[in-house]
Amino acid sequence: MLTDWTCKQNNCLYPLGGIGLQRDFSQQMHLIPAEWVMAQKVLKDMSLSLRLTDQSGIIEGDILLTHVKNLCNHSGSQVFTDITGISLRSLRLKGIHTLKDFGEWTMDLDGQICITNHVFDKTWSSAAKSSWR
To answer: What is the Cα–Cα distance from 122 to 41, expressed in whole angstroms?
Structure first.
């Protein structure tokens, strides 16, 4: 339910911390439990927040590409500026919906997240493989 609230009602912004607290959800109590909406308002009014600390979904690859793109857009990152809805649709047509569909995600000794084992089957054209880089 929190994931639905975060992504469907708040465009992938965590509603219980940071800029996610700035939005008023009182008109959406038919979509979000009233207790949650009230708790979010109390957090905002008291200048408190609940930090989102579990990021294991990223390294495990269980995160949708559209979610990653939205998160990067909110952070001001320029990494995904060239990825459009058409790009995402093309990837979905190839069966790529989540990060783990690209390959295995690992963390190196310096704490950098790396991807290995890109799997390009015979349906990928040479141009598509080149675009991937």
So the answer is: 52
Amino acid identity, position 11: N
- Contact indicator for 72, 53 with CB cutoff of 8 Å: no
Tell how far CA 64 is from the center of its chain: 6
In one letter, which amino acid is 96? Answer: I
What is the length of the chain? 133
CA distance 97 to 64: 6
* Contact criterion met (CB below 8 Å) for 102 and 115: yes
Angle made by CA atoms 116, 89, 57, in degrees to the nearest 5:
45
To 10 degrees, what angle do helices 85-93 and 65-75 make? 160
Residue type, 40: Q
Q: Which residues contact 4 (CB under 8 A, 6 or more apart)?
A: none
Q: What's the sign of the alpha-carbon dihedral 64, 65, 68, 73?
A: negative
pTM of the predicted model as reported, rounded to 2 decimal places = 0.63
Single-letter residue type at 121: D
pLDDT tens digits, residue range 46-69?
999 998 888 777 777 888 888 877
